[in-house]
Amino acid sequence: MSNRVVNILVPVISVILGLLVGAIVMLVSGYDPIAGYSALWNGIFGDTYAIGETIRQITPYLLAGLSVAFAFRTGLFNIGVEGQLLVGWFAAAYVGIAFDLPMYIHLPFAIIAAALAGAAWAFIPGLLKAKLQVHEVIVTIMMNYIALHTTNALIKIVSDGGDNTGTINASASLKSAFFESITDYSRLHYGIFIALAMVLLMWFILDKTTTGYELKAVGFNKHASEYAGMNVNKNIILSMVISGAFAGLAGAMEALGTFQYANVKGGFTGIGFDGIAVALLGANTPLGVIFGAVLFGSLKYGALNMPNEAGIPVEIVSIVIAIIIFFVACGYVIRYFLEKATKKKEAK
Amino acid sequence: MSFLDVLYFIVPSAIFYAAPLIFTAIGGVFSERSGVINIGLEGLMVMGAFIGILFNLMFVDTFGAMTPWVALIAAMVVSGIFSVMHAVASISFRADQTISGVAINMLGVAIALFSVKMIYGKGQTDYIQERFIRFDIPLLSEIPVIGPMFFKDVYGTSILAVGVAIMAWFVIYKTPFGLRLRAVGEHPMAADTMGVNVTKMRYIAVILSGMLAGIGGAAYSQSISGEFSHTTINGQGFMALAAMIFGKWHPLGALGAALFFGFAQALSIIGGQIPYVKEVPTYFLHILPYALTILAVAGFIGKAYAPKASGIPYIKGKR
What we know:
The complex is a heterodimer. By secondary structure, chain A is an all-alpha fold. Chain A is built from 16 helices and no strands. In chain A, helix 1 crosses helix 16 (331-347), helix 5 (103-132) runs antiparallel to helix 11 and helix 8 runs antiparallel to helix 11 (232-258). Chain A starts with a helix and ends with a helix. In chain B, helix 1 (3-33) packs across helix 6 (156-174), helix 2 (41-63) crosses helix 10 and helix 10 packs across helix 11. A two-stranded antiparallel sheet of chain B has the order 1-2. Chain B is globular. Chain B has helices at residues 3-33, 41-63, 67-92, 97-120, 146-151, 156-174, 176-186, 188-193, 198-225, 236-246, 251-270, 282-297, and strands at residues 134-135, 154-155.
């Protein structure tokens, strides 16, 4: 079996195994898996509203997935997407409220502010990694919590002690009257185009530019890149900054599209961590991220229908997603069995 | 309030908030010392907190006042079993340990909440009747100054936590087992050549970390929250991870760091009642542990080195 086929088979098998485990969990806990999965299906495709909301959910997942995947390609594990998303969310909402500008200036301004905020948040771990060889996983985890408390404190300041910034000005909104009309007033917004454009941008940077070549080279072999004359430190920081910008944009989707405000949070949104799953399933490629985001975004949104229609707690989908990550991470074993299976066939 | 009164007030609550962190951070020390990164501490702690509450609610009639302690053991066992998943993935299946840890975190929360909704039909459990209780240690609590600070109104879990930390130091630094554990984490091939079973050592270490994180979670839920919901364990596991790093992968260092983080947590919660402290915005107390950890790993507070082989699966015969 060629390497290419195996690379596609591993995530596919993982998804199937994940769904199987989910079914077993439902069976063991006394629920009906068929009713459960059909409720999930209806939650995703049931009517135009559900489809609209599913695509809405996929939007930040695309960007969070890109963020994780981009850093991965340079050999960095950005587990701080969650924090970068939160600062991006706040920055976009703040610009959306504090300024009153024509739309063609205001909207790009708010979006860029979010990207910059996310990039700045990711710059710190990038800098520490490049200059002091501090492991980025530890720093980004800590930065997540600092982001959570910082944005909460800032929202309280902006709203004079309240816990909601209030709705952003219409001139910074991604809301789409057209999408509303065709999807029965779902919250689907124009952000999906931004997310898809970013997928294209990631492909372009990685595959068509010298910078992208260097970033990937550093990911493959730091030392070889250095001997070849590349500036490894610069590439590490650049990779984190671009990754953070993607994460910040994911925050902008929530601020300018879905919610139209920023509010004080008791915990994380989970989008950043699910972004790890998206990137992993998509093998850190732009096209793969689309598949990953569509799958996990759909599962996440569709699951909301499961308690109503089948009486099954929504967390079953989180179990399925975690199991899928687990199997993809254990790709070595799946590869091993696939190779064994093909060898047997060849021997016959 | 005099300065001494403030200390009498704040030190016991600092220790109270630190105890769950100590257990979990020590668990982290075991795992990372053997060369396996365990980001999954949060998920293991969630599992422990959930099992602790569930067991407490179900068996309170059988065990009476001893229930929290028995529940602690139940949580230890279940989280230990749960951590086998991380061990299998990262040791035998050569998975990326950080990713496996992320999966454990997601799975821990998901399984716990799924079960809560299945059993109780709502997002949180009932409140437990039997919690860990405070008591005064006879004689010791009579000592002036130190007595009221450390030995009055203490929780059994706090004493146990400090005991576990000291025991961990002894095991890791003074026994053959500890020497092997450290060897496996620093240079697994050398250890293997000397006849140490790397795989076995790592399995033991990861399962130990799961058991201790389970105790930490159950100690938290049965002394601080009193029930289980999605917000019960909210970053405690990551804070324990931070404590382990801030303590430079040393059990006593982790103990000190956990106590300090417990102090910061206590200040952020009860600081409003203390003069001067209430002038400090709680925001700074909230981010203190995380900011300090970044400074620590960046080398501003003495350089912290992770065990050399941590994060790398050991493959026999591969240089």
